[in-house]
Design goal:
Elements lengths: L5 E4 L8 E6 L8 E4 L13 H4 L2 H4 L9 E4 L2 E4 L2 H19 L4 E5 L5 H15 L4 E3 L6 H11 L17 E5 L3 H4 L4 H9 L3 E5 L12 E3 L6 H14 L5 H7 E2 L1 H9 L3 H8 L3 H12 L5 E4 L1 H4 L4 H14 L9 E4 L6 H4 L8 E2 L3 E2 L3 H11 L13 H6 L7 E5 L3 H4 L3 H9 L3 E6 L11 E4 L8 E4 L4 E5 L12 H11 L10 H12 L11 H7 L2 E2 L9 H7 L17 E2 L5 E2 L32 E2 L18 E6 L15 H6 L5 E3 L1 H7 L6 E6 L2 E9 L7 E5 L13 E4 L6 E2 L3 E7 L3
Parallel strand pairs: 6-7, 6-16, 8-9, 8-12, 9-10, 11-24, 12-13, 16-17, 17-18, 25-29, 26-28
Antiparallel strand pairs: 1-2, 2-3, 4-5, 4-18, 14-15, 19-20, 20-21, 22-23, 25-32, 27-28, 27-32, 30-31
Helix pairs in contact: 3-20, 4-20, 4-21, 5-14, 8-10, 8-11, 8-12, 8-14, 16-21
């Protein structure tokens, strides 16, 4: 490989910061240095500590460089052939004895689009199982479900990040941007520099909340009531946009009635946010011409997450903001490919292109691309938690890629037990994660800098990660793993190992779907710093378009029923997309940075108000468990910590979990700073040192969730599921506290 800088993207969060990777100057391409890549507009060269130190995982001494197979209860080195044969035997045995749905597949929001696509195809075509889902279900699924309901289309941000500093007010709900994606904080700083205002809604006074003009600190799990109280005041103060409501929405009257039942004084009692604070938030949000609401995991990771996000979307509809320039609603997706990971088929209910698995036309289209009978494709399977909960009972074998549920799943001790009860577990990973350590076979796979592939960031911008170095001997890519396993399971074709070849097939499979990538090619991605979907191109000539390096538009067409590109009756492509423009035949579609400017993705082009009402969290404090627990992240660790806990610099900055609590609560408990505190919920017990701060409500404690063992926060969390998104209630549960060692 050339000893020069390769432009690529960070392996971690959904910002997908641009960076240059340069192999070491000594000629060895094993040591990689990260340098600034100022040309990428999202982060303009800025990186957080995780991105800057990401190469440390490439050369980590605990990195796996050969397969492991369990013999007599112990994981031991094995050849690739032995390891792959063992996996094939395990899956075939399960399928023969218990049927295809006894084989489970679990993916991750960090997998590239190509891997997510291939994994969905592998599950449905090779194994014939419906039982596939991924850890993105635990990330943004409530926002996705709410966006689908309201707008008929889910793309995290329907506008680019660059619009944020140019709006008038941002309400940021349940996002600690300063710690989760620090380079993005500048968008909020620039907003305020430009005279805009920032309202942060978070039970904790986070580093992000400290930047706000107004910080509202509701009880965890009450954001739905808070949004309803704000909507009540917007109506009562005559701040609705009646013309917009009439012209661009439906369902207002029912929503209005629901909001009017939530009097500000009632909302104050539920949330702890005072009526004057509510009025000030309404004033700041409604006075500017442009305003946005951005949500993240706070409102989304609840058993009423879909309704909660829906309530925040209603605010943007009632005030005429959604689908208008520099305005609207957006979700700040968390994982590196959290957006693309939900678009291409590793989700239990979806096919590539964000198509619905239950849609006969979608099944026909994708089956044709895959060369199989549409009737052979299984239907929707269980959601992530339900799938994990069925391990060892209905699901007997599991193939897992890019996830570490022993740390990251809710009610984690129970899920760990379920994993231990499997007949067979195979894990692909780069290190021996806590989940991989339980496997029968562990396959060591290539990492981000050692392979090419695409991701889709939180803006819906499709990006190209480039291979910068040669992988170590002994590791193979996830695509190679699927190719080898498919062959052993009798499917010789259809699982190429070259990422670009997979992407070409993905283009055809996504063509005409809501998330249409058919006009995107690797060459375009390399030249254009990413392309926003939907980006329709030629369906039939996808390969030729790739050779030309462009996505060629096949034909102009009328607006389709769904407002997104679709195949018209004459076989040509109908191009108009919500916010996009039809183009003449032969032109290149530019991609769609801004959605919904002309119409929403619903059948009638109108956004739908969704009437919602307050309801309590699945678990409220009581005499036995009198305190609320909420969980989240710290800046130096990422998700389950499988990678970042292997980086010395990050471990020094964030060596372990802690329990954050208010001085009044600490005094009642008799806990001193640094003293071990046991946090006990109905699901288990976790112990970590106390960190005492006035930046949290006195009725609430906070724990970060990156660590296994005694301080594993997810031992405590509640798997109560949202009825629509099937999102577990990570963000709130009832606990009691005990000082340890007294
Ligand atoms: Fe950027 Fe996120 Fe990577 Fe940090 S972790 S460098 S914010 S992509």
């Amino acid at each position: 490989m050339p000893n020069s800088a390769t432009p690529t993207h960070c392996p971690y969060c959904a910002l997908q910061c641009g960076m240059n990777l340069t192999p070491g100057a000594d000629g060895s391409d094993g040591i990689v240095v990260v340098t600034e890549r100022a040309d990428f507009p999202v982060n303009r060269g800025a990186l957080c500590g995780k991105g800057r130190t990401a190469p440390a995982v490439l050369s980590s001494r605990v990195r796996l460089t050969g397969p492991l197979v369990r013999r007599a209860g112990v994981l031991e080195p094995a050849s690739w052939d032995e390891a792959l044969d063992r996996i094939a035997e395990g899956l075939i045995r399960t399928r023969t004895e218990h049927g295809p749905d006894a084989c489970g597949v679990f993916g991750g929001g960090g997998l590239t689009n190509e891997k997510a696509y291939a994994l969905g195809k592998f599950a449905r075509v090779v194994l014939g199982t419906s039982q596939i889902d991924y850890n993105g279900r635990f990330c943004m699924s409530s926002a996705a479900a709410a966006g689908m309901k309201a707008f008929g289309l889910d793309r995290g941000l329907p506008f680019p990040l660059e619009d944020i500093p140019r709006t008038g007010c941002v309400i940021l709900v349940g996002s600690n941007l300063a710690e989760t994606m620090p380079p993005a904080l500048r968008y909020l700083t620039e907003l305020r520099d430009n005279g805009g205002t920032l309202i942060v809604i978070d039970p904790r006074r986070t580093r992000t909340a400290e930047q706000a003009d107004l910080h509202l600190s509701p009880r965890p799990g009450t954001d739905l009531a808070l949004a309803l109280g704000l909507l009540h005041l917007i109506v009562a103060e005559g701040r609705t946009d009646e013309e917009y409501i009439r012209e661009r929405t439906s369902g207002w009257e029912e929503t209005r009635a629901a909001a009017m039942a939530h009097w500000p004084e009632y909302v104050e009692r539920i949330t702890g946010v005072s009526v004057p604070e509510l009025r000030e938030a309404v004033r700041l949000f409604c006075e500017p011409e442009h305003a946005m609401v951005l949500t993240a995991r706070g409102p989304e990771q609840q058993s009423k997450g879909t309704d909660t996000v829906g309530a925040w979307i209603n605010l943007t509809l009632a005030t005429g903001r959604a689908g208008r320039p520099l305005s609207g609603y957006g979700c700040l997706t968390g994982q590196g490919n959290g957006q693309g990971g939900r678009e291409h088929g590793q989700k239990a209910d979806q096919l590539p292109g964000y198509r619905k698995l239950v849609d006969p036309e979608a099944r026909r289209h994708v089956a044709e691309v895959w060369g199989v009978d549409p009737d052979s494709l299984p239907g929707p399977g269980r959601s992530a938690y339900e799938l994990l909960d069925a391990l060892g009972t209905d699901i007997r074998s599991l193939l897992l890629m890019g996830s570490n549920p022993v740390v990251s799943a809710p009610r984690a001790a129970h899920i760990e037990d379920r994993i231990r009860s499997l007949d067979f577990l195979a894990v692909c990973d780069v290190v021996l994660s806590e989940t991989a350590a339980l496997a029968d076979v562990v396959l060591p796979v290539t990492q981000w800098a050692e392979e090419s592939g695409t991701t889709t960031n939180l803006e819906g911008r499709v990006l190209l990660r480039r291979r910068a170095i040669t992988p170590p001997d002994g590791v193979r890519s996830d695509l190679e793993v699927m190719h080898e396993l498919a062959a052993r399971l009798g499917v010789e074709k259809g699982f190429p190992t070259d990422p670009e070849e997979v992407f070409e097939e993905l283009r055809r499979a996504s063509a005409g779907g809501p998330a249409d990538y058919s006009g995107i090619t690797y060459r375009r991605l390399a030249e254009e710093n990413g392309v926003f979907w939907p980006c329709p191109g030629s369906v039939e000539d996808a390969g030729a378009a790739s050779a030309a390096g462009v996505g060629v538009v096949a034909a102009a067409g009328a607006v389709t029923a769904t407002g997104v590109g679709a195949v018209a009756a004459d076989g040509t492509r109908a191009l108009p997309v919500p916010g996009g423009q039809g183009l003449p035949r032969g032109d290149v579609h530019p991609g769609t940075p801004r959605l919904f400017l002309d119409r929403f993705g619903t059948e009638d082009g109108r956004a739908r108000f969704v009437p919602v009402s307050h309801r309590a969290a699945a678990e409220e404090p009581d005499g036995e468990y009198p305190v609320l627990l909420t969980t989240g992240r710290v800046v130096a660790q990422y998700q389950s910590g499988a990678q970042t806990r292997r980086v010395d610099e990050l471990n020094a900055a964030a060596p372990g979990p802690f329990v954050e609590l208010h001085p009044r609560l600490a005094e009642r408990l008799g806990a001193a700073e640094g003293q071990p505190v046991a946090v006990v919920s109905r699901r288990g017990r976790a112990v970590a040192p106390a960190r005492i701060t006035t930046g949290i409500r006195p009725d609430t404690v906070f724990m970060p969730f990156h660590w296994p063992g005694e301080g594993r926060a997810n031992t405590l969390t509640n798997p109560a599921l949202d009825p629509t998104s099937r999102m577990p209630e990570f963000k709130t549960c009832a606990v009691r506290l005990e000082v340890v060692g007294e």
